[in-house]
Every structure is written in C-alpha cells, then in structure tokens.
C-alpha cells in the first residue's frame, strides 16, 4: 500500500493563503497594485481567514496558523489605511 506524502488539505490552504498575503505585500511595496484594490483583496482574505478560524472542527494547530496569518493581513491593512 502506498503512503500519501501530500500535505493535508488544511496545510495546503494555509500555504496558499500565506502565499496570497505575501504576494499582496510585495505588490503593495512595489506599488504595482492600486491601494483600493489591495484593500478589497485584504478584506476578502481577512474575512475568509475569520471564517476558517471560526470552524469548530478546525484543529488547534491549524487555528493558530490561520490566526497568525490573519494578524499579518490586519497589519498590512493597517498600513494601507494610512494612505
């Protein structure tokens, strides 16, 4: 029987969401995205992370990863709010 070495779905979601936040951060720093567009994307990411965090079936280790990423996205949004 073969062993499935792929990361579980939760880890994959976290990696993808983290990549999205990091890409958005780089885009903001390089000014290759409009501030309004960045705010809209961040709003959606933060709402999505909030929904995931609110899942009662979410394992605690995954919850802490999503919470840290939501905090990172909120900090990025705070920087945009000063624009």
UniProtKB/TrEMBL annotation:
Q: What is the protein's name according to its record? A: Major surface protein 3
Protein's organism = Burkholderia multivorans
């Amino acid at each position: 029987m073969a062993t499935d070495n792929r990361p579980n779905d939760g880890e994959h979601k976290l990696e993808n969401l983290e990549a999205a936040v990091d890409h958005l951060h780089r885009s903001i720093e390089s000014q290759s995205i409009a501030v309004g567009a960045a705010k809209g994307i961040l709003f959606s990411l933060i709402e999505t992370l909030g929904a995931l965090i609110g899942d009662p079936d979410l394992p605690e280790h995954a919850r802490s990863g999503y919470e840290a990423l939501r905090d990172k996205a909120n900090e990025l949004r705070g920087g945009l709010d000063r624009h």
